[in-house]
Amino acid sequence: MDTMRDRFAPVVSRLLDEDPRVAVVLAEIGKDGFEDARHRHPDRVINVGIREQLLVGAGAGLALTGMRPVVHTFASFLVERPFEQVKLDLGHQDVGAVLVSAAASFDWPAGGFTHMAPGDVALLDTLDGWTVHVPGHPDEAETLLRHAVGPGGNKADKVYVRLSVQANERGLPVDGARFLTVREGRGGVVVAVGPLLDAVLAATEGLDVTVLYATTVRPFDAAALRRATEAAGAEVVLVEPYLAGTSTAAANDALADVPHRVLGLGVGRRELRRYGTVEEHVSAHGLDAGSLRERITGFLGAAAVHVR
Fold first, then answer.
1. Residue 230 burial by CB count (10 A; 0-12/13-18/19+): exposed, middle or buried?
2. Alpha carbon distance 117, 113 (integer Å)
3. What is the pLDDT of residue 160?
4. What CATH number has the domain spanning 180-305?
């Protein structure tokens, strides 16, 4: 199976051909994938070099002229390093862009902590008006990229698309807005985000729980969570492929008028200095199926453990 990032350049190259508003801004990373598109559209495929603050600033400048910029590099260099430009050049000036990241939380362990960004979604959460897509499969990444860029993408929309080498076995029909109900039960609700769906389904096999699948986490689909808790009870576990607890406030807000409990599972704050492999990071953060089952059943208790 190809990766989400394998889809990125071909999809956006087609969008460049289809829509004269679309431009791509790169900072060396990923430039080879746009070589053909650069020859066709030399004024709309821009490589600023290893200058990530300029990367975002150039995208904002294009947006001010009415273009729809797609801005791409590793998550740590796209959200964390140029955060002031994301905040001011895009947010303060009220213009939009599609930020597309690679490397996710720990997709390239050999790159070290400089190339890891488990706090990216939490950091964007400090800003107003961002849509955040977290696809769990290359097919979903393609759908969400097209949704973010156009023709439905408004030039003022600020969108973050978080690509990962981790992926579920199959893609689902995502729409860029709503959570999907993948499994129904009565002993609690587990929200699986993006590439963690397969692990969550394995972890909850035989348990009496509802599993919701989220690939668009901002705006948070409060209505879907409320509907699920009406049947399954207001005990919620969020399983996210980035910083643990990132969406607990959103879930609490969705259920503010009913008694409820929320557990946020995800990447821990502690830096793992022996970088190892992706699989070792997954296990160390308790995001493998066995660890998730233990933590989910420990939180939800007897109601969930009742085998369907």
1. exposed
2. 8
3. 98
4. 3.40.50.920
- How far does Cα 94 stand from its chain's mean position? 22
Superfamily holding 4-162:
Thiamin diphosphate (ThDP)-binding fold, Pyr/PP domains (3.40.50.970)
- Give pLDDT tens digits for 199-237: 999 999 999 999 999 999 999 999 999 999 999 999 999
Radius of gyration of the chain from its Cα atoms, rounded to whole angstroms: 19
Strands across the sheet containing 45-47: 45-47, 22-26, 68-74, 97-102, 158-162, 130-133, 216-218
pLDDT in tens, 74-98: 999 999 999 999 999 999 999 999 9
pLDDT band at 274 (very low <50, low <70, confident <90, very high): confident
Whether the model pTM is above 0.85: yes
**Do residues 262 and 233 touch, judged by C-beta distance below 8 A?**
no
